[in-house]
Amino acid sequence: MSVYQQEQEVIEEITTGEFERTPVPASKWKGWKSFLGMYAGEHAAGTEFMIGPLFLTAGVSAFDLIIGLIVGNLLAVLSWRFLTAEIAVKHRLTLYYQLEKICGKKLVIGYNLANGILFCFLAGAMITVSATAVGVPFDIEMPRLTDTLPSGPSWVMIVIVIGLVISLIAAKGYDTVLKAANWMSPVIVVAFIACGIVALVQLDVNSFSDFWNIWGEGTDPFPGQIKYSIWHVIFWSWFANAAMHIGMSDLSVFRYARHARSGWTTAAGMYIGHFMAWIAAALLYAVYLKSAEAQVFLNAGEAPPVAPGPLAYNAIGFFGIIAVILAGWTTANPTIYRAGLAFQAIMPKVSTFWVTIIAGSVATIAGIFPAFAMQLLGFVALYGFILAPFGAIVVFDHFVRKNNTAFAEAYSKKYNLNVIMAWAISFVLFYGISIQYDIFLSFVTLPAWLLCGILFTLFSLKKNNKLNKDVAK
Known about the structure:
The protein is mainly α. Helix content is 73%, strand content 0%. The protein contains 21 helices and no strands. It starts with a helix and ends with a helix.
């Protein structure tokens, strides 16, 4: 069974009700190879074409970028291995059901709504990425780094057409999405490697010192961007997938793992996608920055465009265009599908087809506005900051409270006030600190996560004491 067929089985079983509210039986457990391929493919995709260049716009130095990515990605792998996978193989339940047992049904609906909307915005950014590739043959004006509004009518039409196609394919079901992705992912990885090699030649890199000097000691950030240090790189790369590891979303995947050590397979995604692919994409942008067109922007004190389509085309021709389209496609399609599933939990009477179309429509509208893609570093940080603290509820319930806080389930409550207060206090406090003192959002993600878990534990003590008294009666 391919890795994508395995993921399809997971999704289909969730939506059809099989194992949705019961542990996954041993007959359905999977070996580590299934997860290795899945993570390698999932994290070398459309987002990587945007994130790599955006590091350069932040003026990061060579040492800060390379060492920061090595450390940050390692911390992400450790989070998956010792938190997500550990809890997943212990209970073998989806995140949604574990949250429902602790938080109550109404609160999980709120979580699904937030998750679905954020998924749509992420998919919209990937539609933008694909549009930059489709727009190359038509010579359309590409959105600039600081653009919020679309660059013109041609851009809007291309985004709408791409969004329509992606939405219809996603609405047909995950089977179609995964079969195509099974073929596309290796092509995308090869394209990243090819782009990196060609870019090195174009930059006249003949030694490691030449490669190091591409970033050197770093530069001033581009207009509208902030300066990245090694700490920015470490914490951002660690929490780029905060919703998935410390946020526990990947419980739904690793509950099929035979052993918790399958969590180590996430290293394939981190060091193929979030290291090699990011650096390869950054090299493409480094080539562009030496062009006459980019110099015009820089001399005028403006940020040059970050358009993955033209960057890849400049390196490997039409194969680059195809790779960028496929990369955006393989990210946007499953993202739209998952957003549809989240919305279906809120509107259970609406068919999967139509909730997916709704999700695709929201993503397409978001894709028209390039700000989501051009500010992807900030958006991904916000995404993790919002959702990760919900994972702290599960982590503290498992490791600290020893699964003794199923208050909502025991009392048949629709929502657990302890969870609401813990999340709201941690969110308001640390988001406020970030805004007030202009602190990088990824720096406060871990404190917010910890505070949410601690507050939840403390708030639960009194309720659990009352629960034990009621049970004794």
